[in-house]
């Protein structure tokens, strides 16, 4: 076992590890039997069959991925259909359009949505609560929101997986891309990671014919 990855029989999945809550995602992936690889360089990214983009600070993730030569390979992989799962800042990175971005902030894109950063008011910028996600089946998910974004508009190519009682969209999906405003890896909720790993398994199966 190396420091950078863990041995498992499951698929080899990356967690973008330049900034943000990387450890919690690695732990969740390992719990679900995947091999988790911390991705900081293009050479590491080239070895994985899916990528999780963690929460953190999206403008920093944007700058660092450009600086480390990862932004363009990630964009190409999205176009080629690699499954990716973004939580919070990760959702921001997967959005085609942003509201309240900092000057010059870029995203990878791929989700036909407009995402508003830091969308909850100051008093309620962090909270935890149940969110119904019908397509996951079963009980509502326990969702931790930490200065999270919301999805302002959803284009025709993306679909809504979950909204709060006030109508704020907090989970979307488009093809192999999944983006959510909150942190299931912190509240110990495995079903989004399972859904992502299912996409990864399907893609491996297609590739291996
Ligand atoms: N507010 C952060 C941003 O704009 C996201 C917060 C988070 O990922 N927990 O990138």
In short, what is this structure?
The chain is of the alpha/beta class and 209 residues long. It contains seven helices and twelve strands. The protein has helices spanning 22-31, 42-45, 58-67, 71-79, 89-94, 184-187, 191-207; strands spanning 12-16, 35-39, 51-53, 84-87, 95-99, 111-116, 126-131, 141-146, 150-154, 159-163, 169-174, 177-180.
Tell me about this structure.
With 209 residues, this protein is α/β, with parallel strands linked by helices. It is built from seven helices and twelve strands. The protein has one domain (12-208): Class I glutamine amidotransferase (GATase) domain (Rossmann fold, 3-Layer(aba) Sandwich). The chain has a seven-stranded mixed beta sheet with strand order 2-1-3-4-12-11-10. A three-stranded mixed beta sheet has the order 5-6-9. Strands 7-8 form a two-stranded antiparallel sheet. Strand 10 and strand 11 (169-174) form a beta hairpin. The model has no long low-confidence stretch (mean pLDDT 93). Bound molecules: glutamine. Glutamine (GLN) binds next to helix 5.
Question: What key attributes describe this structure?
Answer:
single chain; 209 residues; alpha/beta; seven-stranded mixed sheet; three-stranded mixed sheet; 7 helices; 29% strand; binds glutamine; pyridoxal 5'-phosphate synthase (glutamine hydrolysing) activity; glutaminase activity; hydrolase; EC 4.3.3.6; EC 3.5.1.2
